[in-house]
Amino acid sequence: MSNLLFDEPGPRARRRIRLATVAGVLVLLALLALAVRQFAANGQLAAERWQPYATWPMWRYLLGGLWSTALAAVVSAALAMAAGIALALGRLSRRRAVRLPSAAYVEAVRTIPALLLVYLVLFALPRYGLDLPLFWKLVVPLAVSNAAAFAEIFRAGIMSVERGQGEAALALGLTHGQSMRLVVLPQAARRVLPSIVSQSVGLLKDTSLGFVVSYAELLYSGKVLANYNGLLIQTYIVVALVYLVVNASLSALARSLDRSVAGGGGPGRRITRGRRITRVPR
Amino acid sequence: MSALLDHLPEFWQGLVVTLQMTAASFAGAAAVGLVIVAMRVGPVPVLRAVATVYVETLQNLPLLVLLVLAVFGLPEIGLKAGLTTTAVVVIALYEGAYIAEALRSGVNAISAGQGEAARALGLTFGQSLRHVVLPQALRTVVQPIGNIFIALTMNTSLAAAVGVVELTAAANRVNLLEAQPIPIFVGAGLAYAAIAACAGFVTGRLERRLAVAR
Fold first, then answer.
1. Is A45 helix (H, G, I), strand (E, B) or coil?
2. Do A39 and A169 contact (CB within 8 A), yes or no?
3. Three-class SS string for B93-156?
4. Domain count, chain A
5. What are the extents of the domains in chain B?
6. Tag placement on chain B: N or C end, fewer CB within 10 Å?
7. Which residue range forms the structural domain that includes residue A165?
8. Inter-chain residue contact B72 with A232, CB threshold 8 Å
C-alpha cells in the first residue's frame, strides 16, 4: 500500500529514518518511564496490588462477566440482524407504505445515542407498566439501535448483487419473495459478512453499557470487583485487556473474512470495492 | 410537554455542554488523527508500528471502558483533572483512531502518480503530505468524517455514565424530578437528531463544494 509517499530510501533518507526511529523509541521509553514513575510514586506497583489477578477466583468472576457479555452480545446481535434484514427489505420494497417507515426508523435511530435508549428502557418503560428483566433492559436498546446499522449493511449488500441475479430468478418463475430469499439474500449475506462481523464487534463494545444498567457483564463485574477490593486501576486495566483480546480476535476474523470474500473472484464480488466502507466509532 | 418547557434551562445547559464537548473533542480527534495517519503512511517502521498499535487498540476497546479507566483509575496514580476535561481528552483520543483510519483510506484512494509527482518536484515527505496528498485525501473522506462527527456527538452521551451533566444526563435528571419520561427523552433525542441533521447537511454541502470532477 503506502509506498505512495516515499521511494526506496537512499543513504540520506536512511540516515533520517534511523534518526526518526531513535527519536520515536526515546519518546516511547520516556512515556513508559513516566507511567511507571506515576504508578510507583502512588504505590500502585506493589506486588500485593496485582497479585490478586494471578488467582483463579478473580478470573472466575471476571470470566463470568465475560460470559454475560457474550450472552448479551449474541442475543442482541441475533435480534438486531433479524430486524436489520426486515428493515433492509422494507427500505427496498416497492410499496411506499413499507419503504417510508423503514427509512424513517433507520434514519431516526442512527442519530439517537444508545445510552439515551438505555435510559428510556430503564426509567420510562417501567412507568408504563413494562418492567423488563435486567438482561432485556440491556439487550432491547442495543438491538433497537444496532438494527438500524445492520439494516444499512444488508441494504448495501442486497444492492451490490447484480440485477441479473434477481431477474434470472424471476424469469425462472420464482416469486419476488422466493428470488429474494433463495437467490439474492444468500449472495448479499456472503458479501457483507466482514461488515457484519465488525459491526458485531461494535455491538460487543456497546454491551459495556451494562455498567449503567447494572447488568453483570464484564465492565460492571469489574466495577463490583473494584469496589470490593479497592484495586481500581488494576481491575479496570485487566478488564480493558480482556475486551482488547476478545475484540482484536474478532476484528482479525473480520479482516481474514474480508480477504477471503475478496479472493472469491468474479466481477463485482466485493461491495467494499471502489468506495470503501469505513468504520464509524461506536 | 410542560415537563420539557419548565426545565428548558437545564436542557439548554445540557445541550451547551454536549456541544462544547463535541467541538473540543472533535478538534482534538482531528489533531490526533492527523498525527497518527502521518506516522502510519510514513517511511519510519517504528512509527508505523506505533500508529498501527494505537489504532487497533483504541478501535477494539469500548469507549465506556476507557472513560471509566480514566475517570476512576487515573486519580489512583496521581493524575487528577476535571471530569469534563478527562472525558473530552478520552473521547478525542478514541475518535482520533477512527479519524486516522478514515484519512488513511483517503490517502490510499489517491493515485500513486500524485505522490510520485510531488517527489519529482523535490517535495519532502512532510511537504508532499501537506500540500499534495492530504488536501486530496480530505476531499474523498468528507462523508466518512461527517459520520464520525455524528457518532462522536452521540458518544459524548457516554460521559453521562461517569458523571458529566451533558444533554443525556440532564434529561435523566429532569425525568427523575418530573417522572414524565416520554416527552423528556423524546426532546433530548430530537436535540441529538437536530445536531446530526446539521452535521449531515454541512457534510453534504462540503462534499459537493469540494468534489473534484474527474
1. coil
2. no
3. HHHHHHHHHHHHHHHHHCCHHHHHHHHHCCCCHHHHHHHHHHHHHHHHCHHHHHHHHHHHHHHH
4. 1
5. 2-210
6. C
7. 66-263
8. yes
Give the C-alpha separation, B66 to B71, whole Å. 8
Give the pLDDT confidence of A71-104 residue by residue, as tens digits: 999 999 999 999 999 999 999 888 899 999 999 9
- CA dihedral for B153, B154, B157, B161, sign (positive or negative): negative
Residue A57 to chain B, least CA–CA distance (Å): 22
How far apart (Å, rounded) are the C-alpha atoms in residues A184 and A179? 6
* A225 closest CA partner among A24, A63, A85, A100: A63
B42/A209 Cβ within 8 A: no
> Looking at beta carbons, which residues of chain B come within 8 Å of A21?
44-47
Distance, CA of A218 to CA of A225 (rounded, Å):
10
Residue in A137, A280, A282 to test binding to B, most B beta-carbons within 10 Å: A280
The pTM (predicted TM-score) of the whole model is 0.87
Domain membership of residue A235 (yes or no) is: yes
Assigned domain for A270 exists: no
Would residue A219 count as lying in a domain?
Answer: yes
Instruction: Tell me which residues of chain A, numbers 241 to 260, contact chain B at a CB-CB cutoff of 8 Å.
Output: 243-244, 247-248, 251
Contact (Cβ atoms closer than 8 angstroms) between residue B168 and residue A87: no
Query: Any idea which residue has 420510562 for its cell?
Result: A124
- Quick check: is A8 in a domain? no
Which amino acid does the sequence have at A36? V
| B150/chain A closest Cα distance in angstroms | 7
- Name the residue of chain B whose CA is nearest to A234's CA: B73
Report CB contact under 8 Å: B144, A116: no
Average pLDDT, chain A: 86
Cell for A110? 442512527
In this prediction, residue A58 carries a pLDDT of 86
3-state secondary structure A99-135: HHHHHHHHHHHHCCCHHHHHHHHHHHHHHHCCCCCHH
Whether B107 shows a pLDDT value over 70: the answer reads yes
Interface test with B, best of A116, A239, A277 (most B CBs within 10 A): A116
Q: Does A186 touch chain B (CB under 8 A)?
A: no
Is the CATH number 2.40.160.210 carried by domain B2-210?
A: no
